[in-house]
Amino acid sequence: MEFSNSFRHTMAILLAVLVVATAAATKADGLCDQPDKAALLAVKSALGNPPALSGWNSSAPCCSWDGVSCNAATGRVTVLTVFGLNISAPVPTAIANLTALEALNLAYNQLYGPIPSFLGPPALPGLNFLRLDGNRLSGAIPPTATVSNLLLVGNLLTGPLPATFGSAVFDEVDVADNQLTGDASMLFGAKKPLNALRLSRNRFSFDLGRVELPEELDLLLIDHNMVYGSIPAAAAAPGRKWLAFDVSYNQLCGTIPQGRYTHRFGAKHFAGNKCLCDRPLPPCS
């Protein structure tokens, strides 16, 4: 009798484990937030139902679709990637319904129209990565685009940066190759966590000598603008390890602060300014 009770107890435990495992597997196979799935199908429709998204259909869980990642516990869509499909359309409004979205990559298509204000808080409160580079988006950058990694290079954007960028917490900002104007100095600040800033080939105008370089900044590309003043002495600080540095073709003046970066980055990274001098450029007179 003792053996029988022990056996029954063991079998009951095994059966319970099997039931739980089967239920978990069934849940994982079918895990897909249904409102998010409907939103993704609306996104697909708004993009013209491209053949590359033919796997986005109602018969398959949305978390298994190409370019879609989900939270394993909730089935909510957290990552959406529609990259390099040459799609010509505005940014789909249905993306606003993916309220758990953390990363959105729509780069290298032919998207046109403005950047929607819902791409950021409060509509998408968890969004921290937004990549829209290589499209034909136009107009001003909306003040809600305060995501920590903002990549908008190679569009047709105009106007100044939003004032909200001054208090935003950015890790990376890339707005190169647009038609942006005005003061971008609000992006700087010694205690800001910014580590990469690309402003190249716009029409920004501000005094570089009056900004405080973020302590973590190791990539600064501001070439081909109308930036004036001087290069901050902090650029040559012994502990700063520049991965990229280019201030060429602006209106900068004065002596170039000497440091390891002046040896690593040659004259072309400082050329085309009003009156910069000293190595790697000719000596100051």
From TrEMBL:
Pfam families reported in the protein's UniProt record: LRR_1, LRRNT_2
Keyword Transmembrane helix: yes
Location of the protein in the cell: Cell envelope; Membrane
GO cellular component labels: membrane
Membrane-topology annotation of the record: Single-pass membrane protein
Record keywords: Leucine-rich repeat, Membrane, Repeat, Signal, Transmembrane, Transmembrane helix
Keyword Transmembrane included in the entry's annotation: yes
Signal sequence residues: 1-23
Residue span, Leucine-rich repeat-containing N-terminal plant-type domain: 34-71
Family, per entry: Belongs to the polygalacturonase-inhibiting protein family.
UniProt protein name: Leucine-rich repeat-containing N-terminal plant-type domain-containing protein
